[in-house]
Design brief:
Order of helices and strands of chain A: HHEHHEEHH
Radius of gyration of chain A: 19 Å
CATH architecture of chain A: Orthogonal Bundle
Largest sheet of chain A: 3 strands, antiparallel
Largest interface: A-B, 69 and 69 residues
Oligomer: homodimer
Distance between the termini of chain A: 39 Å
Structural class of chain A: alpha+beta
Strand content of chain A: 5-15%
CATH class of chain A: Mainly Alpha
Number of strands of chain A: 3
Number of domains of chain A: 1
Shape of chain A: globular
CATH superfamily of chain A: Winged helix-like DNA-binding domain superfamily/Winged helix DNA-binding domain
Number of helices of chain A: 6
């Protein structure tokens, strides 16, 4: 007997999730990453600005996420010469290319007031 | 002296993340949720089909995510009458309205091969 958890398939092949889509949504959706990317899509920011722009996120987690986003090639860390030394974060071309997706998510969030 | 972690702001107000966007990205980005929504955007699926469509996800976690997405009003659970009883999952209007965002993420994922 087929139950709710049966692996039986309906007519037609089971749709398979594209692994690149899956990786993308897991990357952007990782806790706080979307918020960081969205803030940086406005303009390059310094660490403190990001910390202010995304309330509720600890500095420790912000550091970690920035390192991850840098490693994924979405965020670029720039040391501005001078005294005092300043570090700013900006989106790479790959990161900025997420803008249409983030914009659609923003539209959806505002429409449905999640 | 300003350090990397200084809260000092640059010229202009710090961009603040829209709370609705933040909620949306955290919802869609929760582990496996994007993959489930993407699979259901193809057509309604039964539990076993979803389990096959999203390899690597345990049935326990799939059950949990489906309940969460149902509670958020993105997924509808329908019991099809008959013997054996069949349960299918489909997107609500709110869930289907995520399609443009998921499509953009798919385009991005395929372009950048994340």
């Amino acid at each position: 007997m087929a139950t709710e958890h049966s692996a039986e398939t309906a007519s037609g092949a089971t749709p398979k999730v594209c692994p690149h889509f899956h990786a993308a949504v897991e990357l952007v959706g990782k806790r706080w990453s979307g918020a960081i990317l969205s803030t940086l899509s406005e303009r390059p920011c310094r660490f403190g600005e990001l910390s202010h722009g995304v309330p509720g996120m600890s500095d420790r987690l912000l550091s970690q996420r920035l390192r991850e986003l840098e490693a994924e090639g979405l965020v670029e860390r720039k040391v501005e010469p001078g005294a005092p030394v300043r570090v700013s974060y900006s989106l790479t071309i790959k990161g900025a290319d997420l803008d249409p997706a983030l914009r659609e998510l923003r539209v959806w969030g505002q429409r449905w007031k999640t």
